[in-house]
Specification:
Layout lengths: L1 H5 L2 H41 L4 H19 L9 H8 L5 H33 L11 H4 L5 H6 L3 H24 L4 H27 L1 H5 L9 E3 L2 E2 H11 L2 H16 L1
Antiparallel strand pairs: 1-2
Helix pairs in contact: 2-3, 2-5, 3-5, 8-9, 8-11, 8-12
Length: about 260
């Protein structure tokens, strides 16, 4: 049937199983590595500062999420080697199935598992601390319990979805970069992203001088900022869109670039 040309559940399951069998050690070592790193970082911070609040957990998880981006940016490991690339492209599966296997493993499965590991490590690090009455240190009182709910409570409720979409867009960029670049995908992707940001910022400056020469010369853009609603400004909405929507472009880009390699 025509749909089997693009996706077959049985073929997809075999491909997924094959990927796990080939890379199971790599996946296990990755999970072990991020677990040890997360635990060590938080335990060291707790035992040295003797005081950790939910705000400080924000720094931990930002650092942790950057590390997860490195894992996502190394998707499609076979594409880094010419011989492995040929073998990968000749696998009896469609482009869509090969793409979905990596997307499922690196994003759909890996991110929730990694976040669960972070939660476990945060509680394990606190549980590892020993009270010291001599200096008045009691982990139950000095170290806050970590929870994602408490983390979200630090944010304005309307900012949560754009921030999550922004993170997803960043991961989508790294995921697409792993297909687009053969070697050193992550550095090249970040350089490419930096160039794009620079070009966009420069174009804004040029257009500001063109349309608002006096204001741009005085570096005044206050008159360009206005409220769309009682708690949302146009510039805020712009950043919501510019950071929250790129995944709609990067994910299809990764698919079509992979398909191009098979032609």
């Amino acid at each position: 049937m025509k749909q089997n040309k693009y996706f077959s559940p049985e073929r997809f399951a075999r491909l997924l199983r094959n990927d796990f069998l080939i890379h199971k050690k790599s996946y296990l070592f990755t999970l072990a590595g991020i677990s040890i790193a997360a635990y060590a970082l938080m335990y060291y911070a707790m035992i040295t500062t003797k005081h950790v609040t939910i705000n400080q957990y924000t720094g931990f998880i930002v650092f942790y999420m950057v590390g997860l981006g490195v894992v996502i940016g190394t998707a499609f490991p076979a594409l880094t080697n010419q011989n492995k690339t040929s073998s990968f492209l000749l696998l009896p599966a469609s482009t869509l199935e090969k793409y979905l296997v990596q997307f499922l493993i690196r994003i759909v499965i890996f991110i929730p598992v990694a976040l669960l590991i972070f939660w476990i490590c945060a509680h394990l690090a606190k549980a590892s601390l020993i009270p010291n009455p001599e200096i008045g240190f009691d982990p139950e009182l000095s170290i806050s319990d970590f929870s994602f709910t408490s983390l979200f409570n630090l944010l304005y409720y309307k900012d949560i979805a754009p921030i999550l979409l922004g993170i997803f867009s960043g991961y989508s960029l790294l995921f697409a970069g792993s297909v687009y670049f053969k070697r050193f995908a992550i550095p090249k992707t970040l350089i490419f992203f930096g160039i794009i940001v620079g070009v966009v910022a420069l174009s804004f400056k040029v257009f500001s001088h063109f349309f608002f020469p006096v204001s741009a010369a005085n570096s005044t853009i206050n008159h360009l900022i206005y409220k769309i609603s009682s708690d949302t400004e146009n510039i805020k909405l712009y950043f919501y869109i510019i950071f929250g929507c790129p995944w709609l472009f990067f994910l299809p880009l990764a698919y079509f670039k992979l398909k191009e390699k098979e032609v």
